[in-house]
Amino acid sequence: MISYSFVGEKGKMDALVVPVFEDKKFDTLVKDLNDLHEGLFDDVKKLKDFEAKAKQMTLLYTQDKVVPRILLVGMGKKKSMNVRLWKQLVGQSVVTLQGKKLQKIGYVLPVDVVKMFGAKKLGVETTVAIEAANYAFDSHKTKDARVKSLKNVLFASDMDGRQKKQFLVGHKNGLSIAEGVNLVRFLGNTPPTVMTPTYLAKESEKVAKKHKKMKIKVLSRPDMKRLGMGCLLGVSQGSQHEPKFIILEYSGGKKGDKPSVLVGKGITFDSGGLSLKPGAYMSDMKFDMLGAATVLGTIHVAAALGIKKNIVGLMPSCENMPSGTAYRPDDILTAMNGKSVLIDNTDAEGRLILADALSYATMKLKPKEVIDFATLTGACMVALGNERSGVFSHNDKIVERLDSASKEIGEQLWRLPLGLEYSEAVKCEIADIKNLGQVGGRGFGGASTAAAFLEFFTKHPKSGDEIYPWAHIDLSSCYWGGKGKPWVRGGANGFGVQTMIEYLS
Ligand code: BES
Ligand code: MN
Ligand code: ZN
Questions:
Q1: 277 catalytic, yes or no?
Q2: I want to staple 342 with a disulfide (CB 3.0 to 4.6 A). Which of 230, 277, 393, 431 is the partner?
Q3: Which pLDDT tens digit goes with each residue over 102-157?
Q4: How far apart are CA 187 and CA 137, in angstroms?
Q5: Where are the beta strands (DSSP E) in 240-338?
Q6: How far apart are CA 491 and CA 364, in angstroms?
Q7: Cα–ligand 1 centroid distance for 382 (angstroms)
Q8: What's the pTM value of the predicted model, to 2 decimals?
Q9: Ligand 1 surroundings by CB, under 6 angstroms
Q10: pLDDT, the chain, mean
Q11: Quick check: is 351 catalytic?
Q12: Which atom of ligand 1 is nearest to the CA of 287?
């Protein structure tokens, strides 16, 4: 746990982070520091190897006992500053200083940035960025090899008393959000032999216990049979591990308010099943439960912040394995809504377990809206790279609100299409629908045909009418940054939690 404070009289620290704009004079605090060090920053800027361009950094040794190191951080041009960049700069400086095993660091909060974001928001975003950057999944390494966590963070700024108060309110919220984000990352990073559906259910129960307004129900195989969740059962049947269907209910709103339903794919390991993945594509498939983790993390934070909404989380969870008992290509499964599904490829399993979860939402809940999260398709990653997720919906309003929520907090979404050609591609001659479609060639339009498959289960089973607004977020592209980014370590990154919190509040 990091302890935070504003810099006091005795502000001794290992290093002070000083962000400066490329195209602006130093503000008073930075100018004072510069004067104190006899124009050191001016001299550095003159040398031209540090021009304060965005993400440029340089470490200065000051020969000062109180602040022996200063990390100058370039913010680039003032007009290009935004929340995303600010968080990256904060994160990058934390990772850089941790690399030098420093544990007590100060942060100058520039006046212009306070003005730009407002003190409260600056408190939220700075805190989330610090906590996210401080996180490392290294508990499996020997102690000495682990990242040194930060111990103290001191904020230095010219904020007045009122602004400081607002900053602290934001900071407190930021701590809750970061806890959810890092919970998601922990769950995603945990090895798949440990992270089974049962383990995920236990972790969900732990979360539920922490909050008064939260209830949890975990369905096991017999319950699934009774409800007719043939798709979830089908995907599960090759695995040694019992499937679970986790239902988390948070009642922060008025009784009778329709719930926002969040659905998350919880495949604890995706080997591809009998349509086995080639080796290179199988590693990282422990992350295939990050949709479910995102739902759990979001509801945990929503409860911690006391968001006044009713929220239901649905997390179908199982493992996709090949074995003598595994489901097969050519099998026909029946989803909870009574529709039959031809299995073309057992590696398109995420859409199957989501079919039952969406059917559950359709038949058992009266949703205000349904938003699902899933590491669903490699195609989405091919389309978008690894810094934004795909969003699919017929509802422009939901897309706009999700998009502006994500921008507000520095995450990125990109709308990809639903449409008739994708829906037609999953039509089937011998069942109501098949789990693989293509538009124009093998794999073409893969992210959209997967989304069209899901859409089928959001509709009224008889009339085919839309009964609630629905959006699907394909996380495959963005649940991790490969080996990591300068501002966040590799592994799961907790994408989506903060966007959803912004969206729900
Ligand atoms: N979990 C994968 C999707 C995935 C791939 C997520 C890479 C993150 C990184 C999903 O279950 C899957 O295997 N999708 C297949 C679908 C195909 C068989 C139609 C894919 O994308 O290759
Ligand atoms: Mn798969
Ligand atoms: Zn999968």
A1: yes
A2: 431
A3: 999 999 999 999 999 999 999 999 999 999 999 999 999 999 999 999 999 999 99
A4: 10
A5: 244-251, 260-264, 266-270, 310-320, 332-334
A6: 35
A7: 11
A8: 0.97
A9: 270, 288, 345, 347-350, 375-379, 381, 436, 446, 476
A10: 96
A11: yes
A12: 8
